[in-house]
Amino acid sequence: MLLNNQxxxxxxxxLGLPIQPEEQGMYCALFLAMYLTTVLGNLLIIxxxxxxxxxxxxxxxxxxxxxxxxxxxSSVTAPKMLMNxxxxxxxxxxxxxxSQAYFFLMLGAxxxxxxxxxxxxRYVAIxxxxxxxxxxxxxxxxxxxxxxxxxxxxxxxVHTLLLAQLSFLRGNxxxxxxxxxxxxxxxxxxxxxxxxxxxxxxxxxxxxLPFMCILVSYGHIGVSVLxxxxxxxxxxxxxxxxxxxxxxxxxxxAIIGLYFVPSSDSSTDKDVVVSVLYTVVTPMLNPFIYxxxxxxxxxxxxxxxxxxAFSG
Length: 312
Known about the structure:
Layout: E1 11-14, H1 24-51, H2 58-87, E2 91-93, H3 94-127, H4 132-135, H5 138-164, E3 173-174, H6 181-187, H7 193-227, H8 231-260, H9 268-292, H10 295-311
Parallel strand pairs: 1-3
Antiparallel strand pairs: 1-2
């Protein structure tokens, strides 16, 4: 289990989901269907935005990057989980585990930053409609996305470098279906004080501050909407922001339930189940939310289907 003379392990064992062995096949089929739905649904969003010129706006520019991030985020954990369920194996190499932790942290933070950029876009569209084109210019949109990628990569790199310094002499068994950072810290035999301090500090930058920015944006939106007595204006604002609010609620709701609600050692199974919601279910639901609640997306899909019917 030890790698040369280093105080680390050559592989970890992932215990997976808390389900009975006889139910593995059924759950494997279910999660495979959910993963394929995530990939195909988000690819459809990207395709529609690319093909329909009416969707070449800042909001859909951010949405296309969010869809790509959701595909990647789900792909970090789901394929390995499905492979382990199919082959009845539990192992993941040390390098593979560290890499999985890096990409999971990076893409999770990227999701948070992109949702914040989308909230700012909605704030400008509703509170400053006359200045929307000048405030949400193309260069700013590119800058927000680039900064989101750079910050997310830096955050994940800091966590991963600190993680790579830890020793795992207590064992190599993780009570999880992927290499979750908190599970790895619990398993480590090293002093993890610095790691936990960095988690708190970086968590403020990657989760708390973006969430506060989203709340402030929607606070201004709410005030702006309520100032106008028009019911039509309220309905328009709800239709414009409804999809984004639904995704924000799913994303931050899962994070709060997983990382901010105090948990005891006996609630490991609960953490694993909530992680499934966060890593598999939420990315799958995003395309449905934006397709069913968004008239522009439904219109673009209808146009593409009509073109395909006529060309056929």
